[in-house]
Design a protein that fits this description.
The structure is a homodimer of 345-residue chains. Chain A has 345 residues and is α/β, with parallel strands linked by helices. Helices cover 44% and strands 16% of the residues of chain A. Chain A is elongated, with a radius of gyration of 25 Å. Chain A binds a DNA duplex (16 and 16 nucleotides) through residues 9, 11-13, 21-28, 30-31, 33-37, 40, 55-56, 58-64.
DNA sequence: GTGAAAGCGCTAACAT
DNA sequence: ATGTTAGCGCTTTCAC
């Protein structure tokens, strides 16, 4: 029944013999290296096709590259991250590079285990998306293998970065709500205690952006921040606190869409109408936000663009490890939906 | 500024020298192989710790294993699939195996590219989640590397399978709705034309399960199926068709939660109340379903369990390639939420 | 432009 | 129980 296990993998030696050339020649053709005549290339390519040869990355990695890029994502459930992964995968689809991903599981220890595993597996480069690891760990990883860090502000000489302007994104929300006539705009943030991350993590920047934007609109008196976590429950608990205040806010800016989900539930349980009694906004423009029954006003970070640019930076760094590091920042856009409207009069 | 690139990677030779033993000894300790005294093990372990040695998978893969398991997921945006990945990752977390994942991108060609890439990278085993590739491709992959196929019914001598009983799941929904008093229960399925997949793909089985359950309840006259796709748009369009019928159904069983999202939107646009005017159910019990404002009745497939069992089957097969293939099937459970209630009187 | 040969880090026969 | 040695499949000097 069982198909007889394939005889043996075709190797570069088989190709060389079949094409009547040396293995060196095959290797060179494979890598488009210098020193091959057009005739040789043709012969080798034909032999490769005829034999169905595919190079074995493990062996390649012992001397050269594995043509593999590792991506660490913190949380594939947040639909924003798959966008980034798609951007990376698309950008590399027609190259020899392949993308392999592992979940970072939101822990320093777990992240270290993942980055180690990727290094040990000979990845040519790493893209770390919104890592929570301390800077020192990121730099030591980047010292071993070309690395791009996505979604953390602050620059490093050791790795390139790609991020979205969270400061501007928070301002988009505050301005949108203030333009609608809101004054008592509250914010639910993800508590950040570690001082080194305070300056780099998106959540901290969003909270900072909220405060700045409020001041810029002359609403410093109305600044109201509740610290919970970027989870549905964090939103639920945060909203309960805010709704208990007197006067209660007319708008809640949740730091992430998933937080807004919890807020919506708390608001609904409190018997309030959205947006009639209170406006709600999220951040990330995830699939959640777009769902018909939800229709959440949110901030869109071009995830695919972020991913595509990360991939390009990484490939550039793999080619030239000494090039100066780059920091790419994208501007977010506001997506206005049904959960925001002028405040009750 | 830049931390000076690490001198050189520590190799098994360094460990051997430092521990005053042979490289063979180190290799054996690493693999818990036969023929090492406790003293030797202690010495080697200490040297490994002192030098911070970590084996290089590429080199290992040339002779033995890479201790890497590849997982292909069709769609990380469907929150059901991350559950499976978590189950796999958790099950292998405390072993030497590491899990690397790649998106299958819902295409035969893309899936082939991904499985090839994983084979070329020396994966010890593959877990293919809900692949759409034809059986022949799955079998040829399984002929090269130990493989577990998740979420496809039907057995093979070449690979193990783990799936959830979609026939039973569909019956759970139909019975739930019928028990509530519904008779005109409609179903939105994902169109399946390929005959070979008709018998294996979960979507086809769910539609079949719906028909069987309706007959079992004496509702064969009421069977109403619309074929679209398992997407939000598919749900939207499918629901529009169903709502235009006279008499219109009192309940819609969407084949997947994401489909139900589109249904909810269409129903809302038609000015109908859920569940007052019409009951809606999904399938997969995704994060969507649990969101406060959605609260969708759905079918839960224990994703983590499926993942954990896949991992165990795979490791067992890696250890013994000749063991007979196993087929594990789990029973789904109904999660009743606010979108289902008795029909309007 | 081309190829012979060394060697990457590890595992597995095969001694001892 | 321990060590010696020959590769695994590829890339990379370095001759020609």
């Amino acid at each position: 029944m069982e198909p007889p296990a394939q005889p043996k993998r075709v190797t570069i030696v088989d190709v060389a013999r079949h094409a009547q050339v040396s293995t060196t020649a095959v290797s060179k053709v494979l890598r488009n290296a210098y020193g091959t005549s057009p005739e040789m290339r043709a012969k080798v390519r034909q032999a490769i096709d005829e034999l169905g040869y595919r190079p074995f990355a493990g062996a390649r990695g012992m001397r050269g590259q594995t043509y593999t890029v590792g991506v660490m994502l913190p949380d594939i459930r947040n639909p924003f991250f798959p966008d980034i992964l798609d951007g990376i995968t698309d950008a590399l689809w027609d190259t020899d590079y392949r993308v392999l991903m592992a979940p970072g599981r939101n822990g320093e220890e777990a992240e270290a285990k993942v980055t180690d595993a990727m290094i040990d597996r000979g990845m040519d480069g790493l893209i770390l998306v919104a890592p929570i690891s301390p800077r020192s760990h990121l730099e030591s990883v980047a010292g071993v293998v070309p690395t791009v860090v996505v979604g953390r502000h602050g620059q490093s000489a050791a790795y390139d970065t790609v991020s979205d302007d969270d400061l501007a994104g928070a301002a988009l929300i505050v301005d949108h709500l203030a333009d609608l006539g809101h004054r008592r705009i509250a914010h639910i943030e993800h508590a950040e205690t570690d001082p080194s991350r305070l300056a780099e993590m998106p959540n901290a920047i969003r909270a900072d952006g909220y405060r700045r934007a409020m001041r810029a609109r002359g609403l410093e008196e109305e600044i109201a921040v509740v610290s919970t976590t970027y989870t549905q429950e964090g939103g639920y608990l945060g909203a309960q606190q805010l709704l208990a205040r007197d006067p209660r806010p007319t708008a809640i800016f949740a730091g992430a869409d998933i937080v807004a989900m919890g807020v919506l539930q708390a608001v609904s349980e409190a018997g309030l109408q959205v947006p009639g009694d209170i406006s709600i906004t999220g951040y990330d423009n995830t699939t959640f936000a777009a769902l018909g029954p939800i229709s959440l006003t949110s901030v869109d970070q071009a995830g695919r663009l972020i991913g595509a640019n990360s991939a390009q930076l990484l490939i550039a760094r793999i080619r030239d490890r000494t090039r100066p590091t780059a920091q790419i920042k994208f501007s977010p856009t506001l997506v206005s939906r049904r959960t925001s409207s002028p405040p009750p009069s």
